[in-house]
Amino acid sequence: MNGLVIILIAIAVLGSGYVFYGRWLVKKWGIDPQAKTPAYVHEDGQDYVPAPKQIVFAHQFSTIAGAGPVTGPIIAAMFGWVPALLWILIGGVFFGAVQDFGALYASVKNEGKSIGLIIEQYIGKTGKRLFLMFCWLFSLLVVAAFGDMVASTFSAAVVDKSYAFGAAVTVGAKTAPSAAAGSISLFYILGAVLFGLFLKYVKPNQLVMFLTGIALFVAMMAAGMAFPIYLNKMQWLLVVFAYIFFAAVVPMWILMQPRDYLSSFLLIFMILGAVVGIFVTQPDMNLKAFTGFNVGGKALFPMLFVTIACGAVSGFHSLVSSGTSSKQVRNEKDMLPVGYGAMVVESLLAVAALVVAGAAAKSGKLPDGTPFQIFSAGVAGFFQKFGMSEYVAKCSMTMCVSALCLTTLDSVARIGRMSMQELLYDEDGKAHTPLTQFLTNKYVATIVTLAFGFVLSLGGYNNIWALFGSANQLLGALVLIALAVFLKTTGRQGWMLYVPMTVMLAVTMTALCMAVGNIFVKIGAGKFVFLTDGLQLIVAVLLMALAVMVAYHCLRKLFEKPQSAKAEEKAAVSADGTAAE
């Protein structure tokens, strides 16, 4: 099938979802454009910082996009492009976008509280603590998977085993785009800090901000291409973790907000490159439409759903919506484009990644390389047909897809740190014992979170991805249940969440059981590695146990009778002259 037809279908479906279903949700739940949002009520210059709609959208999209919409669909193409496409479109409109918008809506309506604190308010303290533990464990998987992907993508060296971490040895022009992309990323961080200072103290208007951002974008790309940095994977892994530590502890305005704005140029450049390239070249899908219900020992149910992850629905998005974006929204009208809109754009990116991979396939098989490299090479090929040099095209695309991971990494490191702090705080939201005061220090909490993530990353993203996808979707199911409780408790309609939360709960619990089973198979085969497989097994079992307990508390609250109904029932029983046992 022609790739252009697939893109046009996706644009029509996702656009209709935003215009009709998204606006229908707004009418059902209600917004107040005159209300003061948490960004103003609790403005502190650190986490609560009012920002224009464009910046909040850029933050939401660049953070949630991550590696998921590129990696997931390309891996899931093993089952054929038709099931992957169907789940991206259906999941994006009715599952993912609803969850993202719902989490943002609930948080803004509750003083910018995270989903964990919303659960405490509407479900109880036990539910909150269980959920926060789940979120913290999940953040370890995100840090591990995405950190390994970035390090693998930037790696451009041969390892010299005579050194503890290997010595960087250049191996020619083939590695130059990766080295340049890594260099661009470092210049990009510096540029974001300078841009943040510029926005903070100069306070430019929208036009000046845009032009300055464009100038910085061009300068960073040129400097990175001129001075590539050759490091091996382990060295890049250390650099990446040092960066996300810094990003997780500094105020939002100095790095994350300006970085997200600058990221929007990269993301628009990448998406337009992919979509316009598909429009111009009209490539054919060289993958099979459907390959079977079981491929390479992996069953379509549930693996298709947990593999695609972020392109259709992702629990991680709810942590972004309620953890950072809700603290920046300056008008409730912005919630629909930020929450629902960012997700449908991500689904479009997932479809584009599927088409690009399908066009690059030969004889029904994908080319060698990571999903990042396959996508980057495919879109770079489009740019070359427009007259761009091969080197510039590959550098640009490698940097674009890596920027998605980096923006996710620094946000999830902050969210993981905040989850750990909230978990250890007492009922008054403070730490009182010497031990909890030490562990809730933002530097200590960040180091602990990143340390566990680093150990998990040593197993490689291929070993983590299935567990990450399962935990990610399971988090989405728990959030949907919690949102249904919030909507019911506040007198709003939440029945549209019942089918998504039920489907995701069934899919993800099945996938997690299979992931645990695979680890036991490794034990039986003598291929079990305690440092990586052992930690994955512990995390998987804990996630399953926590999920069952969180779901129990949430569902019990969701389906319990209101207090007034209970009182009426008791009165009716008394009137009949019978006593309740």
The radius of gyration computed from the alpha-carbon positions, rounded to a whole number of angstroms, is: 24 Å
The residue ranges in which pLDDT falls below 50 over 5 or more consecutive positions are 157-173, 565-581
Q: Looking across the biggest beta sheet, what order are the strands in?
A: 1-2
> Sheet with the most strands?
2 strands, antiparallel
Give the mean pLDDT.
84
Number of extended strands: 2
CATH architectural designation: Up-down Bundle
Proportion of beta-strand residues: under 5%
The outline comes out as: globular
CATH topology: Sodium/glucose cotransporter
Our count of domains comes out at 1
Distance between the termini: 66 Å
Please characterize this protein's 3D structure.
The protein is mostly helical and 581 residues long. The chain has 22 helices and 2 strands. The protein has one domain (3-569): Up-down Bundle (Sodium/glucose cotransporter), CATH 1.20.1730. The chain has a two-stranded antiparallel ribbon. α4 crosses α14 and α9 crosses α11. The relative contact order is 0.17.
Outline:
This protein has one domain (3-569): Sodium/glucose cotransporter, CATH 1.20.1730. 73% of the residues lie in helices and 1% in strands. The protein is built from 22 helices and two strands.
